[in-house]
Design a protein that fits this description.
Helices cover about 30% and strands about 15% of the residues. The chain is α/β, with parallel strands linked by helices. The strands form 2 sheets. The chain has a 4-stranded parallel beta sheet with strand order 3-4-5-6, covered by helices on one side. Strands 1-2 form a two-stranded parallel ribbon. Helix 5 links the parallel strand 5 and strand 6. The mean pLDDT is about 80.
Length: about 180
């Protein structure tokens, strides 16, 4: 429930994403562009988004971001930020000092706020185990992910398999697990 007629809000990275919305049941919101830089993420998740949630009278959050929102509102967090569970990985040594500092702040905020999550979802058993070992959580579940479908080999004009179909728009990053989703 909220003051909006729609009842559903999606916080998107840019105004461009809002333009694409034609569903009257969903209200898309975008933060000002100066909040969209990685360096501002801790401030946004700690202060900006929590105020938005209160203002909009949000009752439940589905969080697909890197960080957890600093809120007591029930929050389902889909974890997909591998830096948070591979802290001793060689990738850390390749970061600039600025990126290293940002990631360390993010780690601290995940540690601080993960207990606020009503539920945490992981995409793999390994990540689930690492989350439970690294953080004080016992509410980590595996996402029920179906077998993949290789769109690259799909010939033009052939029908997709029956069932729900999703369009997953994003830059291709290995950690996004396109093949799994």
């Amino acid at each position: 429930g909220s003051k909006s007629v729609s009842g559903f809000f999606i916080l998107v990275p840019s105004q461009t994403d809002i333009i694409l919305n034609t569903n009257k049941n969903i209200e898309f919101l975008a933060l000002p562009s100066f909040y969209q830089y990685s360096i501002s993420a801790p401030f946004v998740y700690e202060f900006v988004i929590p105020k938005m949630l209160i203002k909009l009278e949000i009752e439940l959050v589905l969080n697909l971001g890197d960080l957890l929102i600093n809120t007591k509102i029930p929050q389902s967090y889909i974890f997909d930020w591998p830096y948070a569970v591979y802290e001793n990985n060689s990738a850390w040594g390749q970061l600039s000092l600025a990126n290293l500092l940002i990631k360390k702040v993010k780690l601290a905020l995940i540690s601080k706020n993960i207990s606020n999550a009503k539920e945490v979802f992981s995409q793999t058993t390994v990540i689930k185990e690492r989350l439970e070992k690294r953080y004080p959580v016992n509410n980590v579940s595996l996402l029920p992910v179906p077998a993949t479908y290789d769109m690259v080999s799909l010939e033009y004009g052939k029908k997709l398999p029956d069932g729900k179909k999703f369009l997953y728009l994003s830059y291709y990053y290995p950690h996004k697990n396109f093949e799994v989703l």
